[in-house]
Records
---
Amino acid sequence: MNFDQLFELAWEVRQNAYAPYSNFRVGAALLTKDGKVFTGCNVENLSFGLTICAERAAVTAAIAAGYAEFVSIAIVSESVSPVSPCGACRQVLSEFVPANEDMEVRSANPAGDIFESTLNALLPRARAGILGT
Ligand code: THU
């Protein structure tokens, strides 16, 4: 499973995004350490703060299926520049990075621009010092 395939799945699930308030539809495809893929789209709410981002929706799908170690995530949106995950999603994703590893994070837009980073770069020291670790 490579990023081209992950992006394809992310575009597919993005079609199911529920985004009537922002009209900004996002899709995400999350690759587990075991090579399984779980997808998610954003789910908005009339009470705006309850919105769930595509990335966190993918995380909950994976956890519900019994997978809790993720190595890559692909995110897509129709934006001028590719999105980068919000702070809440960075923190939630950091919970599920395999020990001593990092997570590849890439996002794309329809123009084919790619933003490429890692979770450690996007959220350094996410777990350091908390609960004695
Ligand atoms: N959104 C995501 O789902 N993921 C991102 O990385 C950026 C933002 C959603 C949340 C909200 O439904 C809409 O995009 C506008 O912020």
---
Amino acid sequence: MNSERIYIFDTTLRDGEQAPGASLNEVEKLQIAKALAKLNVDIIEAGFPYSSKGDFSAVKRIASEVEGPIICGLARANIADIESAAKALEPAKKRRIHTFIGSSDIHLKYKLNMTKDECLKRAVSAVSLAKSFTEDVEFSPEDASRSDYAFLFELLTAAIEAGATTINIPDTVGYSIPEEFAKLITEIKKNVKNINKAIISVHCHNDLGLAVANSFAGILNGARQVECAINGMGERAGNCALEEIVMILNTRKENLAFYTNINTKNIIQTSSLISTLSGFPVQKNKAIVGENAFAHESGIHQDGVLKHKETYEIINPETVGIKASSLPLGRRSGKHALKVRLEELSYNFDTEEIEQIYIKFKEIADKKKIIKDQDLISILGEKEREAISEKIFNLEKLQIASGSGLPIAAIEIRKLDDNTILRAAEIGTGPVDAIYKCIKKLIDITGELMEYNVHSVTEGIDAQATVMVRINHNNKIYNGHGLDTDILLASAKAYLNALDKLYAEK
Ligand code: KIV
Ligand code: ZN
């Protein structure tokens, strides 16, 4: 069977970053874009340059520093947006401008206050202007799935005539169902007379939990590009999950004539990086990347898998970057064993990097008997964060007195920019409150705590805890992480990590 290529357009950094509470700084975005390039996505939608100075600068930096995929910037159908996207994308070797305008009656009437004719003219001018900056132009009629089909066909025909090389069909509000979405793509193929001059793309939201199913229906009916995000991040309930759509095509390749160029072995590490940096934990039973995705719990299933893996396993975990461990890692493991295990998990580090990781590994191994893969991934996440965020506040000492009386915290922090030591003690409603009160007392610019989450990295009483916090300072969200076998130390580190980011920006 001849196989056809499906292009993977990753929008983790644009639609994914629109997820409520997500807030990535420029260095984090760059780190993610590099991971997406390693994953071998075809297109990275790096942001919406006109929307803020921060977005503009991040898109420009990604365009300068990330090689491999096409770098794309989003722009509404107006001159300022398109010029800004073109400017931000200038350094990219391969660049795409993605311009969009609402096409449904509801968007035209209530959001844009425009007639269909005005909308069509605006779309054509936008595509023509984008085309003056780059050959590669994508056009999206926003809310396509709820648009008047006759108008949609006319709009798409005009956009292609003006030079759009990809036409993207968004199910913006996640309202469509697979049969209907499939029909829409079929009708577009039938009714848009110049459709053979453009690639059809699909962009589905997950409000009804159908983003992947709708995207898949789109592919089956002629779409050759899928817009998706790692871990299904995105506006509201999110976008089509990249790992799911890619693994559908990969797992069922014998029955489906499609392939992608994704390095599937990098899926788990990319998912884990994005979860750590964005502060969105991956749900345990999430398909492909959830902690339980390859865990067999019931006796019958375990028995079956031990006798023959395929009784209950449709994907070999190694395909997505999980490799069964031959040797458990622990306190006595050396650097070589650590390096081998990391390579088995598709992480390749040079000797100097292994030295640094080994220091962290030993710290944890002294407190914990067995170091599992999740522990290693968390250690790498911590290393990653330290490498990219400028550390200003270092937790030196923490003492807690807690119980049914008065929870008291005493803390010592080193301010690394001027090497001063800050000390405070406070009473709180609980130990974490006491710690955070101390920090607020010592540091002049802080933020309001919006979210506090503790997550155990593995099972067991000696497990490491990851604490994730989000703080709000002047309506901007900063997230922070802390990792430690002691929850209170992890809590203090998480808050200081968020303040590091706030200070770095100031
Ligand atoms: O959901 C949507 O319609 C979008 C467009 C900008 C493509 O994100
Ligand atoms: Zn979207």
